[in-house]
Amino acid sequence: MVAGMQPPANEPGAQVEAANIKLAVRDLSISYGRDTALGNVSLEIREHEIFGIIGPANAGKTSFLKSLNRMDMFNSDMHVKGEVLFNGLNIRKLRNIYALRSRIGVVFPLPVGLPMTIYDNVALAPRLSGMKNKADLDVIVERCLTRAALWDEVKDRLNSLGSLLSGGQQQRLTIARALSQEPELLMLDEFSIAVDPVTTMRIEDVLKELKAEMTIILVTNLVQQARRLADRTAFFLAGECVEIGETEDLFTDKVKDQRTNDYIEGRFG
Amino acid sequence: MFETSTLNARNQQVQRLVRILFLMMTLFLIVPVLIILGTLVVKGSSVISIDFLFTSPTEGMTAGGIFPALLGTVFLVAVDLVIAIPIGISAAIYLSEYAGNNWLTRVINLAIINLAGVPSIVHALFGLGAFVLFFGFGTSILAASLTLAIMTLPLVIVASKESMQAVPQAFREASWNMGATRWQTIRRVVLPNAIPGILTGLILEISRTAGETAPIMFTGAVFFTPFLPQGIFDQTMAMPLHLFVVATQVPGVPEDLPYGVALMLIALVLFMNALSIAFRAWLRGKKKW
Hey, is the C-beta of A102 within 8 angstroms of any chain B C-beta? Predict the structure, then answer.
């Protein structure tokens, strides 16, 4: 961990409480121009859990993810209010935004195979952080591609162009690239949209293993995917965080809000 | 089920007519090119020989070769590129990757558009005033190349900027999301994908530079000199001015000679373009694409 990312030492109480809280969000509101995408969300994500976020389109799920690694800086129209504490540190006041982003892996619904070789795609993040040794890079590339369930398909053509892979393969390449950062937090936004069901199941198995090493936020429009993977799940609806709970509770009569039940039962959305 | 209705038939007929119309327009475009090249080759090729390329003009420009002009134009283009490439590509990177949407950016863009619109004779007079007289470079290759560089910078900037902006924003965001700085992203993601477009801009720049007459007339190119240029502060002969001279200014020039000069000017431009295209292909090969 970089020194700049340490929580302040003069708040011992806060530190004990923050010990297994990876990410705390307080009163987070996101707007685009005059349109509110997300209003007053507060939640905490624990270390080494898979935190699911479900909800229909326009619920604010993607905007929520974007605010967590300061992607609002890419879009002058996007405005974020509230606090996001990563390892107890408010990222909205963080100077070294690059250190934050290199700790967060992101996978979006549409794959982004960078127009460089498959090898270079996966080696990019380690190279950005200064790694030059070819043998070390080889190890990382093989490990990340294997975890993303892509190694067997591409091991003989690592030097061909990543953007020429099929959509599903490019998505797995994107996942491999996110893993190559060795992130503390992995954010997946509907990653399985462009991936076939068999591969999706393989990646889901990998995610369960990765939980031991990192915290995972899984935004999904497949309610059953959240049920298979997530320890806890939040239900977002029209910019509001309606309910947060243990995932299994949302699928039983412990659900608190009728709207959550309606969505999960498929009565709207 | 698949019978042709009258509407189908008419649509298909229109489609065929439109296709032929567009083809004819396109062919019309290449007719002048073919006539120019054909005329030059037919009338000019008899003049061209090794001697013609590598000797100086003799007998009051009515005989001999074109070597000083050929060498001068190569010199002018080379110095021009040394000036225009770093300035033009830096400006393009700034405008494409760093500039915000503010008044400064708008002023810069406006200036570039206006620079592109200034007639070459005005550039020539500016070059005379600024580089020849004010900076005291005299009529020299340096002054002429500076003038040419300023005139052709908009070409380099606009072509480079557009090829960088054609790189999808998603690529940049993917790189930023990994913690890359803007410059790391430019170097590893944007530039490698923009280089073909940047080189296309340079090809345009080379063609324009090699062929321009007005900007070099007052700033560095001379009617005739028996000496070859030794450095950037020398005057030089140049191909376009030499063509103008032998075609209109000197009595008693054999009819075929100007055609030969024009043919060589075009050949020189094509040769320099071929070098850039080969460089582009080499870059692609190096990346194993």
Answer: yes
